[in-house]
Automatic annotation (TrEMBL), chain A:
GO molecular function: sodium:proton antiporter activity
Alphabetized UniProt keyword annotations: Antiport, Cell membrane, Ion transport, Membrane, Transmembrane, Transmembrane helix, Transport
Chief localization: membrane
Stated name of the protein: K+/H+ antiporter subunit F
Transmembrane portions of the chain: 6-22, 34-54, 60-83
TrEMBL record, chain B:
Function field: NDH-1 shuttles electrons from NADH, via FMN and iron-sulfur (Fe-S) centers, to quinones in the respiratory chain. The immediate electron acceptor for the enzyme in this species is believed to be ubiquinone. Couples the redox reaction to proton translocation (for every two electrons transferred, four hydrogen ions are translocated across the cytoplasmic membrane), and thus conserves the redox energy in a proton gradient.
Organism: Psychromarinibacter sediminicola
UniProt entry tagged with the keyword DNA damage: no
Protein name: Monovalent cation/H+ antiporter subunit A
Keyword Cell membrane: yes
Length: 89, 962
């Protein structure tokens, strides 16, 4: 059963990634692109976790945790750039 | 090392050590300085004298100090007859020159500098003549070129001095380059770089296909050094040097180095047709041309310079004959030439010093004014002319005898005739030196009223003149043993030459008579001949040389500007295209095994990742002119590569990649703030097409290469790493063990590079902000519509919460790095990201105010810790960076491992953290210069502070922002 659930989840998040890509490519706004990139990071983390479940190992969880910890920093940086220009004032 | 061999390295080192002193001792006065200079020379002479008896008894004294044995480079010295003669000449004349220079140099000339150069040169020359290892010899050879450059250009204020020095360096240095090639070939054929061993390999060397290239290259070196035609032109121009330098370099030492080397290698190189025709012919031509030009030179020193060229040609010719007797005559003439030529140079210097001119046409009649100088000059000049009772006569007779018996291309007379012409011209210019300078009526238009110099100045030439006569009258009693010993060392066989005044009626006697009579007649005709010479067009060597230099500079400039025009796009295009072509050639060369691996199915999720990568890459290409958008797209690529690493079971790399990605984005955004947001279109369609083709070729090539590798089984070094990681490095995380142990040396280099990069960015920014850029920044236009939310409360609080978590994660990753995914590099990045967050949230000033450790020192201590860890291995008797590890069990906690690699990793951690933070610090400093204000508080609205204080701060800030 878990196999099917995993396959379904893979398909969803994979499709999600592709939609993110589409959003980043067409925009139209900078904010759309940044948001899409942030979502993409989240989707990628999800895929890694799923892959960890699939393979039955904990190593991927750690990697995904770390990506989660630092992944949002670039989003913040992009946003600060758009809002204030200088990201470290 | 044979008995007494210990002296040899000391003899070689003494002048170099001594060179340190004159510069200091000049403060104690000129006499003290000169005496100090003489001391190392005298010491070396004494040591040489101690060794001389053993050398005379046929021993070869050897000494060896291992230096770089892996390269065949040993500091090995040996002293045989030839070395003894030359070392004695170099030191002996060096001593005389030291004395002479003391009186010659004027008060305003920096004497300490002069003596330092002189000793450096003397050391280099000594090194050449007693080196056993030819690589060592080459080093000394180059040193003579360099130190003679300094000596020739000693009078820096004279343009002729500088140009002459440059020319000498260019010619002798160029020849030295050729000689390096020749010597390496020679060493390769002989299988050894030791002269003593090479000299025993005559047959192997002469039979080798590489004999001729080696011969030509070595001869290029010796011919340039010994000023043989057509490289003779540098020597007269080097006469711009002070006379002591000319006397030393051009009579006894520098120019004799080439002759020395030809004599040294005589046993292995001489005796072939190639040797005879190249060396003997060059020598013959040089002898005649040098003598001819000398006859028409009005500058005393130029006359002597060309005479030196001529005599060097004579020596070269004798060595070129290839017969042992001719080589013996060459040795004899080396001694004779030294005595009369050094003496003549010094006399020319005295005349110049006293009469303030060296122009023969302005001199004449000095005999009564300077009787002592006249006497010395006459003795030396008569010897140079080859008049009986003077030593020049003996060697010239022997030379003519040899020339008369030499057949050149089937013609038995030609060498004898040409040699006689050379001798005739030589007589003419020697007589002219005496007749036109000292004889004739006393004039009253000398630039300065001449008189004999003080004793100290003429002591040295006088001593040499005495030698001229002594050797000339009693050759058998004075120099015969030395000549036989040296000739034996040159030819490698016992020599029994008998030097005597009267040889009976031989062809040489007739040739001598012709030469003397003809020379006298020629001198009588000098005036009309001189007018003819001046009217005749002749090639001016300096003009040609300058033209060649200019052309070479133009051509290299064109090449350099064509390939190095400063546009990185061109460098990359050349580099990439060349790589692709090489890759293609390697592939087209065949030798590729057929594919052995099956294609794997593509899982859909991986397919999605692939589409993402490709899509993002294409999007970057399309949108790259909008820089911010390109940065966002690059974020996708980084994320996908990290995901790929995770999928390929490389969590380490994924961690590193994602951290690097984040730091990169932040730094790029920081820089982008001050840069145009759009990349302008700079290249035309043709150039863009070229770039597109190159890019596609390179990308396609790499893809094909990867595909080819993935389809084939091959063994890599990875297997070794996997097997030895735990047993050798004590860690189960292979990646980390590779970084800190197997390839620790690389990592050490890399963190140093990283640290330097960080410091360079800091330094560049410092220089940039001190320049015009800071004025431009002050006028920066910030009119863009900005959010008023400068330091949002939400973000500040979130980053504060994240800070300890991130720090703990960093520590955790660092500690477990040796056995589990992680390590110092990732940990450094994680911590720096944690700090970066604070900078972003609360601003530069607030965060910087809380930073206790300078980032510079963090880089430094990182490198030092890593280095010390490496050095620590030495104390255990292991090579640099050998790691050690052990397991420790402390009761309350589990058994754990302690490895020196962890300490090394700490260094990596600190260096990475320092470099990243320093770069960030440097980039964000720009904003200060752009007139941005800084905040004192951590956030825009701080609920923990009383409202009235906040309002006051807010008011202050608004005031500042104006």
């Amino acid at each position: 059963m878990i196999t099917y659930a995993l396959l379904f989840a893979f398909a969803c998040f994979g499709a999600g990634l592709l939609f993110n890509l589409w959003r980043i490519a067409v925009g139209p706004d900078v904010a759309d692109r940044i948001l899409a990139l942030d979502t993409m990071v989240i989707n990628a983390i999800a895929l890694m976790v799923l892959y960890g479940i699939w393979r039955g190992t904990a190593v991927y969880f750690e990697a995904s945790l770390l990506i989660a910890m630092v992944g949002f920093i670039s989003t913040v940086a992009y946003c600060r750039f758009v809002l204030r220009g200088d990201i470290i004032e | 090392m044979t008995e007494g061999g210990g002296f040899l390295p000391i003899i070689a080192m003494l002048p170099f050590l001594g060179a340190l002193l004159p510069g200091l001792m000049i403060r104690a006065g000129r006499n003290v300085c000169a005496v100090t200079t003489a001391m190392p020379t005298i010491l070396a002479l004494v040591m040489l004298a101690i060794l001389a008896p053993s050398v005379f008894s046929g021993e070869v004294i050897e000494a060896e100090i291992a230096w770089l044995p892996a390269l065949g480079l040993k500091a090995s010295f040996f002293l045989d007859g030839l070395g003894l003669l030359f070392a004695g000449m170099i030191l002996g004349v060096g001593l005389l020159i030291t004395l002479y220079a003391r009186f010659y140099l004027a008060g305003e000339d920096p004497m300490g500098v002069f003596y330092t150069y002189l000793l450096l040169f003397q050391g280099a020359m000594l090194g050449i003549v007693i080196s056993d290892n030819i690589l060592l010899l080459l080093i000394f050879w180059e040193l003579t070129s360099l130190s003679s450059f300094l000596l020739i250009g000693y009078w820096k204020h004279l343009p002729e001095g500088r140009q002459g020095a440059r020319m000498a360096l260019a010619v002798t240095g160029g020849g030295g380059l050729a000689m390096i090639g020749g010597m390496l070939i020679l060493g390769n054929i002989a299988g050894s770089y030791e002269l003593t061993e090479i000299l025993a390999e005559t047959e192997a060397i002469q039979a080798s296909d590489w004999y001729l290239p080696a011969l030509i290259l070595i001869l290029l070196g010796t011919f340039t050094k010994s000023a043989q035609f057509p490289f003779h032109f540098w020597l007269p121009h080097a006469m711009a040097a002070p006379t002591p330098v000319s006397a030393y370099l051009h009579s006894a030492t520098m120019v004799k180095a080439g002759v020395f080397l030809m004599a040294r290698l005589w046993p292995v190189l001489a005796g072939t047709d190639a040797w005879f025709y190249i060396v003997a012919t060059t020598g013959l031509v040089t002898m005649v041309i040098g003598a001819l030009i000398a006859l028409f030179k009005d500058d005393l020193k130029a006359l002597l310079a060309f005479s030196t060229v001529s005599h060097l040609g004579l020596l070269t010719m004798l060595l070129g004959f290839g017969t042992p007797v001719a080589a013996g005559v060459a040795v004899f003439h080396i001694i004779n030439h030294l005595t009369f030529k050094a003496s003549l140079f010094m006399c020319a210097g005295i005349v110049d010093h006293e009469a303030h001119t060296r122009d023969i046409k302005r001199l004449g009649g000095l005999a009564s004014l300077m009787p002592v100088t006249f006497a010395i000059s006459t003795v030396a000049a008569l010897s140079m002319a080859g008049i009986p009772l003077f030593n020049g006569f003996l060697s010239k007779e022997l030379m003519l005898e040899e020339a008369a018996h030499t057949t050149w291309a089937g013609n038995p007379q030609i060498v004898g005739i040409v040699a006689t012409i050379g001798a005739l011209l030589s007589v003419a210019y020697s007589f002219r030196f005496v007749a036109h300078v000292f004889l004739g009526p006393v004039r009253d238009d000398y630039p300065h009223k001449p008189h004999d110099p003080p004793f100290g100045m003429y002591a040295a030439p006088a001593l040499l003149a005495v030698l001229v006569v002594l050797i000339g009258v009693f050759p058998a009693a004075t120099v015969e043993p030395l000549v036989n010993l040296t000739a034996g060392a040159v030819t490698g066989q016992e020599m029994h030459m008998h030097l005597k005044l009267w040889h009976g009626v031989t062809p040489a006697l007739f040739m001598s008579v012709i030469a003397v009579v003809g020379g006298a007649i020629l001198l009588g005709l000098h005036r009309p001949l001189d007018r003819l010479w001046i009217a005749m067009p002749r090639p001016e060597a300096k003009v040609i040389f300058d033209w060649i230099v200019r052309q070479a500079a133009t051509v290299s400039g064109r090449i350099a500007e064509g390939t190095h025009n400063g546009a990185i796009s061109r460098y990359l295009a050349i580099f990439t295209a060349a790589t692709v072509v090489l890759g293609y050639l390697a592939w087209a060369g065949g030798g590729m095994a057929p594919a052995t691996r099956e294609m794997l199915p593509i899982p859909p999720v991986v397919g999605v990742g692939w589409v993402m990568l490709l899509g993002a890459t294409l999007a970057v290409v399309v949108m790259h002119r909008n820089r911010f958008r390109a940065l966002v797209l690059i974020g996708i690529i980084g994320l996908m590569i990290s995901a790929g690493f995770v999928y390929m079971s490389a969590p380490d790399l994924a961690l590193t990649q994602i951290s690097v990605e984040t730091v990169t984005i932040i730094l790029l955004l920081l820089a982008l703030h001050f840069m145009p947001k759009e990349t302008p279109r700079e290249s035309g369609p043709a150039l863009r097409l070229r770039d597109a083709v190159i890019a596609l070729g390179a990308g396609g090539g790499v893809a094909m290469l990867t595909y080819a590798f993935l389809r084939r089984d091959f063994s890599t070094i990875s297997d070794f790493h996997l097997e030895n990681s735990y047993s050798g490095g004590g860690g189960t995380n292979v990646v980390n063990v590779i970084l800190v142990d197997f390839r620790g040396y690389d990592t050490f280099g890399e963190i140093i590079v990283l640290g330097i990069a960080g410091l360079t960015i800091y330094a560049l920014m410092e220089a940039l902000l001190a320049g015009p850029a800071s004025r431009r920044l002050r006028n920066w236009d910030f009119s863009r519509d900005r959010s008023r939310d400068r330091h949002p409360l939400m973000m500040v609080v979130a980053t504060r919460v994240m800070m300890p978590i991130a720090a703990v994660v960093g520590l955790y990753i660092f500690l477990r790095g040796h056995n589990q995914p992680g390590g110092g590099f990732v940990a450094g990045l994680v911590i720096s990201i944690a700090l970066l967050m604070q900078y972003m949230a609360s601003g530069f000033a607030w965060t910087q105010g809380r930073q206790r450790i300078e980032y510079h020192s963090m880089i430094g201590s990182g490198v030092v810790i890593a280095g010390l860890t490496g050095v620590g291995a030495w104390f255990a008797g292991q090579p640099f960076l050998t790691s050690a590890f052990g397991y420790v069990h402390l009761p309350p906690i589990e058994e754990f491992e302690l490895a020196t690699a962890a300490l090394f990793d700490l260094g990596v951690f600190l260096a990475v953290l320092g470099a990243v933070m320093l770069t960030l610090y440097s980039l964000s400093r720009i904003a200060r210069y752009a007139g941005e204000t800084v905040n004192i508080g951590p956030m825009d609205y701080d609920p923990s502070q009383p409202p009235e204080e906040m309002a006051r701060e807010e008011a202050e800030r608004r005031e500042e922002e104006g």
